[in-house]
Design the sequence.
C-alpha cells in the first residue's frame, strides 16, 4: 500500500535555528497537509496545500512557518527561528481529493528544540 | 471553526468487554468523522470513519454511530483484546472554503485492556 514518507524521523535543534522537515506524499494525491502533536496532546492542523499554494492554515501557522513543494514529489515544512514550544511530532499527510477523503498520515518527524 | 470534545479521557476494561468512546462536535455542517488509533510514538491510524449520510457503520469488532441532530458520534469496540490498548482520537472535518480535508481532533482516550 502506498505510504506518506517523512524525513528526518527525529531532529534535535538549537533554539533560534531553522528546521526543514521533508515529506513525500502519496504519488497521485492532490492535497497535502501538515499537522503537529505536542507530547501527550491532540493532533492539531497546521496547513493544507493544493495546486502549489496554501488552501487553508490555522492560527498556529504564523510567519514562522512556511511550506513548499520544490519539485514534483517533495513537500516541505520550514520552521524559522525555532522556539522551545515548537518541540512536537510533525505529521505530513495527503488525500487524493479534498473534503471527505481519507487522510493518510506519515510516520512523523519528532522535533526537539533545546 | 469546529470544536470536538471527547470522553472519557481514560478507559480501563477487562479483556472481552466492550468499550465505548463518545465525541461531540459543534459545526452542524461537518460531514466526515474518522476515528484514529495511535500507539506511543506512532502515527494516527485510521480504524473507521463515517459520513453524515449514514447513522452507523461496522467493521468486525468496531462500530461507529452518528447522531447528526445531537451532533455526537461514538466508537464501540466489542470483545476487546490487549492489543486494542492505545490512545483513540475522534475527529470531525471542518468546512473550509479553501477545500482540502481539515480535521479537528478530540483530546483522545487512553484505552487500557486488562487481562
Sequence:
Amino acid at each position: 500500500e502506498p505510504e506518506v514518507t517523512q524525513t528526518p524521523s527525529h531532529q534535535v535543534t538549537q533554539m533560534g535555528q531553522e528546521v526543514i522537515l521533508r515529506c513525500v506524499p502519496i504519488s497521485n494525491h492532490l492535497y497535502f497537509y501538515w499537522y503537529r502533536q505536542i507530547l501527550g496532546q491532540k493532533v492539531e492542523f497546521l496547513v493544507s496545500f493544493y495546486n502549489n499554494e496554501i488552501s487553508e492554515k490555522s492560527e498556529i501557522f504564523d510567519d514562522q512557518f512556511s511550506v513548499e513543494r520544490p519539485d514534483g514529489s517533495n513537500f516541505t515544512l520550514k520552521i524559522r527561528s525555532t522556539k522551545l514550544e515548537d518541540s512536537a511530532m510533525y505529521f505530513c499527510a495527503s488525500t487524493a481529493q479534498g473534503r471527505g477523503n481519507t487522510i493518510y498520515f506519515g510516520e512523523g518527524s519528532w522535533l526537539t528544540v533545546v | 471553526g469546529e470544536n470536538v470534545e471527547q470522553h472519557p479521557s481514560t478507559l480501563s476494561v477487562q479483556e472481552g468487554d466492550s468499550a465505548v468512546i463518545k465525541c461531540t462536535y459543534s459545526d452542524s455542517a461537518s460531514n466526515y468523522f474518522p476515528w484514529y488509533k495511535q500507539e506511543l510514538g506512532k502515527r494516527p491510524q485510521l480504524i473507521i470513519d463515517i459520513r453524515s449520510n449514514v447513522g452507523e457503520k461496522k467493521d468486525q469488532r468496531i462500530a461507529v454511530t452518528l447522531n447528526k441532530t445531537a451532533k455526537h458520534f461514538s466508537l464501540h469496540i466489542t470483545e476487546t483484546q490487549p492489543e486494542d490498548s492505545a490512545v483513540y482520537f475522534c475527529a470531525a472535518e471542518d468546512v473550509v472554503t479553501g477545500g482540502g480535508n481539515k480535521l479537528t481532533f478530540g483530546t483522545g482516550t487512553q484505552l487500557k485492556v486488562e487481562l
Remarks:
- Chain A has no helices and eleven strands.
- Residues 15 and 69 of chain A are 25 Å apart (CA to CA).
- Chain A has a mean pLDDT of 94.
